[in-house]
Write a structure and sequence with these properties.
mainly alpha; 12 helices
């Protein structure tokens, strides 16, 4: 049993590593596309602040994944394994085609699909709007819409305020100021990314340990698991994700440092809020909404809506496809893994 659990934990950390280079684009796309940092320095910058998030945020999101998506009593090692393989597969497919998609929702979809294949739809924890901090499908589903919409609105507002404050300044002065400020906004966005994303996989590891009887099903996620997930994500971030960087930073709309700052600041605020509510959200959705909001201040023509539309389709398909793959994988995994 111990060998199986260790192998699944390694698989979970592999997911976090892939999550790191897949979602590295979220943290560095704007700062690279505006040429504030070189790609190599940008990934190191993002990786460092992703890891620092371990010392700042609680494990609320991890516990939501562990106990607030499906009935913990129905979570077995086979369920987790099928969910992880499905989410890794979807991440690699979308990375290969350079499509920004949500690693978070791939993970949630994989867990849902495998659990439903095992015990039916009654295994799902629906949750409610009035108790969002306790998890559930409803709050997570709500934030699929809220996160990018909030990023869009905040990005638009921050950009309008910036235009007004610096309306009498020369473009060269504005560019010089925001090249420095974008370092700060990129750091805060990476903190938000680490605070929300790494803890999701820690929640999966907690679920595996509980299913195998190493910890109680009502116990929190061990600190070593959270630390390991941050380390894996930090290393993955340093590996980069250049296919997606090009889509996020160049193909949706053209960005200057002032635009990059507003988009990252809007994304950071959104991620900090979601983490405070203990809700796993998509950092991809969040920063894409922020970029579109910033671009919209220059007119609707400034946004390449065809590219944005393909990104939206990836969002729509992530949970059902990852859930479907996990559902197909569950029974073979259950025959192999008797825990």
């Amino acid at each position: 049993m111990l060998t199986v659990v260790v192998l699944v934990i390694v698989l979970a950390l592999a997911f976090d590593y892939i999550n790191g280079f897949h979602d590295a684009a979220n943290s560095i796309a704007t700062v690279v596309s505006t040429r504030v940092l070189s790609p190599k320095i940008a990934v190191i910058w993002a990786a460092v602040f992703n890891f620092i998030a371990y010392f700042i945020f609680t494990s609320g999101v991890a516990n939501t994944i562990k106990q607030g998506v499906v009935d913990p009593k129905q979570v077995t090692v086979a369920v987790v394994t099928a969910g992880l393989i499905a989410s890794i597969a979807w991440n690699l497919i979308t990375w290969w085609y350079g499509i920004p998609s949500s690693s978070s929702h791939a993970l949630v979809g994989g867990l849902i699909g495998a659990a439903v294949a095992k015990a039916g739809f009654g295994v799902l924890i629906t949750g409610s709007f009035s108790a969002m901090t306790k998890g559930g499908i409803i709050p997570i589903g709500l934030f699929i819409v809220v996160a990018p919409l909030m990023g869009f609105v905040l990005g638009f507002i921050f950009m309008v305020i910036t235009y007004w404050v610096f309306r009498r300044s020369s473009p060269s002065r504005v560019g010089g100021i925001f090249r420095k400020l974008q370092l700060v906004s990129a750091a805060f966005y990476s903190l938000g990314h680490g605070g929300n994303d790494a803890k999701k996989t820690a929640g999966i590891i907690g679920a595996v340990l509980a299913a195998a009887g190493f910890i109680g099903k009502d116990k929190g996620v061990p600190e070593w698991a959270v630390f390991a997930c941050y380390a894996a994500m930090g290393l993955g971030t340093m590996a980069g994700g250049w296919r997606i960087v090009k889509t996020m930073g160049q193909k949706i709309c053209q960005l200057q440092p002032v635009h990059g700052f507003s988009a990252e600041a809007a994304g950071a605020v959104t991620l900090f809020m979601a983490t405070w509510f203990k809700i796993p959200v998509s950092t991809t959705h969040t920063i894409t909404g922020s970029i579109v909001g910033v671009g919209s201040t220059r007119g609707l023509h400034a946004v390449k809506w065809g590219v944005a539309g393909r990104v939206v389709w990836a969002w729509v398909l992530t949970i059902p496809i990852s859930a479907g793959i996990a559902a197909i994988l569950y029974h073979p995994m259950a025959r192999l893994i008797k825990v």
